[in-house]
Every structure is written in C-alpha cells, then in structure tokens.
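Internal tracking record. Fields below are filled automatically when a chain is submitted to the structure queue. Please do not edit lines marked as system-generated. If the sequence contains nonstandard residues, flag them in the REMARKS field before resubmitting.
Queue: standard
Priority: normal
Entity type: single polypeptide chain
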Amino acid sequence: MQTPREQAAVQEGSVVRLGLRLANWSEKWFPDPLIFALLGIVVVFVVGLLLHQSPGKLAIQGGKNFWALVPFTMQMVMIIIGGYVVASTPAVYRLIRALAGIPKTPKGAVAMVALFSMLTSLISWGLSLIFSGLFVRELAHRVKGMDYRAAGAAAYLGLGAVWAMGLSSSAAMLMATKSSIPASLFSISGLIPLTQTLFLWQSIATTAILITLSVLICYLSTPSAENARTAESYGIEYQPIRSALEPKSKPGEWLEYSPLLTILVAALLCWYLIDVFRTSPQGALAALDLNTYNLMFITVGLLLHWRPKRFMRAVAECIPATGGVLIQFPFYAVIFGMIVGTGIADALAKLFASISTHNTYPLLVAIYSAVLGVFIPSGGSKWIIEAPYVLQAANLHQVHLGWVVQIYNASEALPNLVNPFWMLPLLGILRLKARDIVGYGMLQLIVHVPVVFFLCWLFAHYIPYVPPMK
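SYSTEM-GENERATED OUTPUT FOLLOWS
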C-alpha cells in the first residue's frame, strides 16, 4: 500500500523521479565532507604503494605538507568573507530581494538560482556561493513548496559547472601572467594570453552550452510542492539580513557608526588597486589574481556597508561558514604532498604521455583532470601539478595550448558537483549538510560528464596549434 507521498511521487516526470531518488539516497548514505578528505589520503597512500613508493616517504611527504596550503587557505577564507560582505550589503541585498520576487513557481525559482549562480561565478566563485546562498534563503521564504535541496544544489552549480571558464580561473590567469608562471613551466608553455583561453569562441560556446544545460536540468528535476523538502521541513526559519544598526550607547562608538574612516581607507585601497591595474605589464586582466580579487571585494564591501559597525557585523555573520575550509584544507595538503613529493606524479605523467595521440589527447586530458580533481579539489594547486607534463604532451601532439587550459578548466570542475569541499561556505549559509544537496549534484554530473568530454574533444579539432609565446 503506497503512502500519499509515494503516490504523488509516481505522478512526477522521469527526471524529477530520478532527482528524488538520488537526493534521498545521498541524504541517507553520503558522508560528512571531512570523510572525503580523510578517505582521499588513504586512497592516495594506497595508490602510492601500488606504484612502489616507500610508505615512509609517503607519510613523511604528506605530513611535511600539512601546513603547505596555509596562505592559500587564508585566500579562500577571504574570498568567502569578501563575497559575503558584498552580497550582504543593503544595495546588493535589495537586488537579491527584488530578484526573489520574480519567480512564482518552485521550478522557476530553482532554475533562476542556477542561472545566477553560474553567471556570478564567471566573475567570482566566492561571490557566487554567497549571493546564491542568500538568494535561496530569500526564495525559500517567498516561493511556497520550493524544494530546499534542489535550490541548494542549484546555488552550487557555479562551482560545479562554469566557474573556471570565467575570470575566476586560476589556471588561465596564471598562464596569462608571465611573472607568476614558474620558470620550468614557462620554458614549456610560454605566455598564454586570455585571448587564447577564456575568450576563445570555443570556450565561450562551451560555457553557454553548459549554462543552458544546467538550467534546463534544474527546471526539469525540481519536484512539485507535494514531494518537496522545504526549508521548514529542515527546521530552518527565515532570517533576513539586518540592515539597521542598534543606536549608539557610548561616546566611544561614534567612529564605529561614522563613515569617515571607511571613506579614507577605501580611497587609499582604491588608489592602490588602480595603480595595480594601470602598471600591470601584461595588461589589466593579468592583475586579476586571488589577492587582487579579495582586496577588490573587501574594498567594495567596506564602501557599500558604509559604516565600520555594519561591515564588522557582516564579517562576524559569515565566519561560521569558513570553519570547514580552515580544518579541511590541511588534510588536502597532505594529499598534495604525497602526490608531488614522491614519484606518483612522474608515474602518472609517463603513463599519460604513452597512451595519448593527437586525436585522443584532448579527451584523455579531460578525463585525467576530472579524476585528479576528486583528490585535489583546488583548481589552482592542481594545475601547478598537472601543467608541466600536460602542456609538454600538448606540444608533442601539437594541440593548441590555450584550449588545453580550457579543457582543464571545463573538466576539473566536474568533481565539484559531488565533492563537498567547496560546498562548505554555501552549506554554512543554508544550514544544510552536503548529503542534502549532493543527490541533485549527481544528476547534473551524469549529464555533464559526456557533454563536457565531447565538447573538449570536438572543439580541439577547430583550433590550429600555435607554438609557445616566449
């Protein structure tokens, strides 16, 4: 005898039913994100043993690198803070609330979240996570019957689909900045400007296809109100961002409520940023590294909050969302150390070169980058590991180096759809667990993998090889 809920589920379309099954499975079986990090260490250690690496060396190299990503960790934390302080400003929050008033149905709401998640990720993945998270919270209050899991997964699509195809791309930015490219890598690749990576028509077409496909999947897979798990079902109450400040109670607080220091400090930082872009040897776009991005968002957030008191309140509100990043990055650094500090990377490079040809190379790069992304979910750090032998093989097979960078960017994002590593800031805002949204990420992954691999292989045939620019 079926329950009313089960009978309603039967009436849904096939895509909705598949999404519900995957969502229900992930809620029951998917582990905490920390388990992924710890499991990754064990898997890489076993792979190292199979490749005849010394267990002692694997352990030593892993432990030695435990703190190796501390600067990068701080950059990631500042991206979260910068994204939140901008997204939570009265001006941007008014925009979020205005957008939340447009969709009237759960399907339309989830599709709209997906669209804005991906569009904002092309500017900054940190802004995408925070903007989308706040957008979902607002929609959950306005659109009755919206599945909170589906909306949360849609908010994460910027990181799982197209973030690396835009200005957030660590790999493309690195290869376009001569001073940032390690000398050993520059001798292989030379300088690869953004016109040969992000702004290739093939790259733009791939991005447009992935955005359209992702939004369509979200629309088709969103369940009806009868089958939805709403925010209320998780015990989550609507909490709008506060804009008003408490009245001053002490004379010593007047500077906290005055915009004077905000204006002076923001003016100084803007002066510096203008000089950075003006004096960049490779042009303004080349100056868009992580540090510059972070400083830009902090400066904009400081200005838009206007008063130091409101700015610091926003910072305090988003700090809980950074906890997972702070504790898990060191464990991923252990994985990084075992791969680059032993013979694992060299063994993989030799295997990669021996089995690839000019025709199969683009597809193999895509597959390899996606698989490696499961163990090293940081696009920038992984590119440093992968780039030397991947680009060397591209020269041997005469495949366009800029398109190789874009193959990497499109495929390395795929594991993000189910890897909880980058979900942490979003989960902190939504007050969900990774298992709550991974099911819908799996549905996206099932569709994205063949499409991404095919586009990477297809477009490689329409870009002639260009020797490295020294």
